[in-house]
Amino acid sequence: MKRLLALCLLLCLLVPAGMAATKAPLPKELSSNVGRSFVYAPTKRGTWQSSDPHVAVVTGQGIINFVGAGDAVITHTDTKGKENTLSVTVAPGGEMPAVIQQGIDLALNEWSEAAGQPFPRSNKYTFWLRNAKSTFGWCGAFANYCLDEVGIPMERRSASTLQEDGRPYAAYEAAVPKIWESFTKMDRIAYIPQPGYEVIYGKRGSTPYVHLGLVTAVTDLGGGKYLLETVEGNMDNRILRYSYIYDAMAEDKERNYTALPMEQQTQPDVFKYEPHNKGAWYITCFGQTWY
Question: For residue 152, is pLDDT > 80?
């Protein structure tokens, strides 16, 4: 069942906007864990409803977020009134592995040591990927360098396969589209953040894979909203930290994060509070390095 669901998810996510998805049969049931997500019939119009929002909540785009242990039924009603149901059983999520915290600590130490200074286009993060002097956008290389340094297993995109448990795992890649594809092949795309996850940003009206950061802290604000802290490489050739509010239930998925209220912007020497690129970016998804 897990392999079938992972294949269906990969097919759905790889279909370009405006094209019909492969007519694979919709699953009738699945098992998952708290903190995970599943895209249910994303190319179908209509409405979605959860029988128990304390177990599973579903957005207007058919993204199901598993928020509590238990059982629930997700119902999709298309524009002609036809219903499809998905029975879900959600098990508790795991505790964050110590090695993930080690990766976060290393990334924050890299930020501290850099002290806001710019990096050359060829640096230790670009060298990490190719073991040679090279230049490219290094946001993904920064995050995965930190995870690799603490011993988190990772594979190239071409070797990425379904990961059937929540053990630490990542992608040995730097390009954001390749990292997204790797997590998709692992069945580790989510829309609920956790520390140590990789946050993938898109640009409104353009590509959904323009930048990547590492989530360092998450505060659940309720109602599908989360206060996030991140550390991100290759922002103006620097390592910067950000803090903002993410809305996992936003009806407009391209406007799903906002700045903190001014009275909460208390550490301007640590965090950037303004949305990336003057608000032109959004959060595409999160790559689960664990669950």
Answer: yes
Give 38-92 pLDDT, tens digit per residue: 998 766 789 999 999 999 999 988 999 999 999 999 999 988 899 999 999 999 9
Enumerate the H helices of 115-260 as residue ranges.
Answer: 124-130, 139-149, 176-185
Tokens at 247, concatenated: 């809305």
Q: Does position 20 have pLDDT exceeding 80, yes or no?
A: no
Is 275 in contact with 258 (CB distance < 8 Å)? yes
pLDDT value, residue 127: 96
Q: Which residue from 35, 41, 65, 40 is spatially nearest to 53, judged by alpha carbons?
A: 65
Show contacts of 46-52: CB within 8 Å, 24+ apart.
Answer: 46/76, 46/77, 46/78, 46/79, 47/76, 47/77, 48/74, 48/75, 48/76, 48/77, 49/74, 49/75, 49/77, 50/74, 51/75
Q: Is 69 helix (H, G, I), strand (E, B) or coil?
A: coil
d(CA 87, CA 72): 6
| Cα gap 220→62, rounded to integer Å | 22
Distance between CA atoms of residues 87 and 51, nearest Å: 10
Question: Are the C-beta atoms of residues 143 and 114 closer than 8 Å to each other?
Answer: no
Helix and strand numbers (H, E) in the chain are 5, 17
Strand partners, 198: 214, 287
Quote the distance between the C-alpha of residue 231 and its chain's center. Answer: 14
How far apart CA 287 and CA 12 sit, in angstroms, is 17
